Amino acid sequence: MSRLLKLDGAAFGYGGRPLLQGVNLEVHAGGMLGIIGPNGSGKTTLIRGILGLIPTLSGTVTRPERDLGYVPQRESLDAIFPLSVEEVVQMGAYGRLSGLRLLSRAERRLAHSQLTRVGLAERAREPFSRLSGGQRQRVLIARALMSTPRLLVLDEPTSGVDHDTELRLLELLRTLCAEDGMGVLLVSHHLALLRQNVSEVLLVDSGKVERGASHAMIERMEHCQHG
Amino acid sequence: MDEISWLERIELFRWALLAALCAGLVCPWIGSFLLVRRTSFQGIALPQISLAGVALGFCLLPWCSRVLGWPSGNPEAMLTDPHMAMNYSLVWGGLFSLAGLGLLLFFGRRGEGETARIAAAFALANAAIYIFARYAPFGRNEIEELLHGEIQFLGLHEFEMVAVTCACVAVLLGLFHKDLLLVSYDSDSARILKKSVLGFEALLLVLVALLVSVGTMTLGPTLLFGLLVLPPLSARRFARSMRQFQLLSAAGGLFSVVAGVVLSFELDLPLGAAIVAAGGLLLLPGFVLRTPRA
């Protein structure tokens, strides 16, 4: 399987000060990597570094430049925008469109087929803000799929959704890995759920990233979650 | 006015009416971006800041006239030439609008609260208008007319300025609508999709500053703020998509102008203020028919 993402001794931070150092990880085509850690541990910093939204302070990051899909935390998107579901999905194609180009019929068809894939085609004309949390998450996944990514990065896609919705979202991600050979990297708070569904779990804590879902890691996370 | 027919009034005030229609179409469009970016209050502060610039321009007119050598060393004569007066004011209004936007953004990045920043900018700009106007040897009437929303006597040159500005803003908004929307909604995804976030943010700021500075000098801050804010605020309650939102906003702006003209002619009100009052009517259906949205 081809390697889609490699971090080799990477350090990320803000204002030149590293918050995470010596990060090593790899994501392969068809693989699914979970990232877990307590609040404020640097999970979002790691994601932003991987996506190239903040500079790499040291080490190297090898990632696909164009074939990268990103699903942000849905709370980070302001509900004041009166966007329809299909408008949100179509945004995923904007990277291919210069200012003068309109959305082609093919792009609209692609948006519709991505919505069908996440099971929300019949709600295309509805306001995005009126969907449930899980449905909005699926719409954002459909938007990320518009750029036909090889690597999909999701920031806490299961936060604030019920258990059934969590399972359906993870099933959708497993399907993308298995059928499309896509690499998936996702951040979550739910360790048990991640361990059942991803090939590897990384723990982000105290400025470091540890590999492997060890017993000690679970204990530490559970302590964080309950403490 | 009783003996003047409607047709005669329209003929008499045609440039003002046409300018208001142009603004009624384009101001709500750009106002829709200000609303969803939660920067609508910029719409109240910027026209005041721009007008403060115009007032300072009148204050410094004798000095500018002497230093730059126009027009024939007689600054008062310049005010009788609408082209010269407009272009001179445009420079001051534009400079202050851009500087005002820059300062608002600068303090915003330093973490100052949006409301406090805008309130302070509005208060200071308002005070500056009256202070500069007090010391301005000429142009006090023009400033007062702009403050009161008296736009009836706009001439061809002012209309041309508004029309060209609105056309430029509309074309650029249309061309870069997708990019401006993406950058406003989800700047991280815009960066990942290789969009120049800084470039499109700057484009939007320049369009706002351009529209505000030209609009302030021709239509006045009251009308400009009303058209930037009221139609989008009303449209958002009913829109189910961004496209609907912007179409309803523009339609609301046109309705405000037409209804405002009727109010102004029937009740002998200042045209600008009447248009804003008519824009206020747009909010009623939202309050009556729907609950407020997030």
In short, what is this structure?
The complex is a heterodimer of chains A (227) and B (294). Chain A is an alpha/beta fold and 227 residues long.
Description:
The complex is a heterodimer of chains A (227) and B (294). With 227 residues, chain A is of the alpha/beta class. The longest helix of chain A has 18 residues, at 163-180. Chain A is globular, with a radius of gyration of 18 Å. Helix content of chain A is 34%, strand content 26%. A six-stranded mixed beta sheet of chain A has the order 5-6-7-3-8-9, with helices on both faces. In chain A, helix 3 packs across helix 4 (133-145). Chain A has helices at residues 43-51, 85-90, 105-117, 133-145, 163-180, 191-197, 215-226, and strands at 3-14, 17-28, 32-36, 56-62, 68-71, 151-155, 183-187, 200-205, 208-211. Chain B has a single domain, classed as ABC transporter involved in vitamin B12 uptake, BtuC, CATH 1.10.3470. In chain B, 81% of the residues lie in helices and 0% in strands. Chain B has helices spanning 6-12, 14-36, 42-59, 61-68, 75-80, 82-109, 114-135, 140-148, 156-175, 177-185, 187-192, 197-218, 221-236, 242-267, 271-281, 283-289. The longest helix of chain B is centred in the first third of the chain and has 28 residues, at 82-109. Chain B is globular and about 55 Å long. The N and C termini of chain B lie far apart (46 Å). The model of chain B has no long low-confidence stretch (mean pLDDT 86). At the A-B interface, loops of A face helix 10, helix 11 and helix 14 of B.
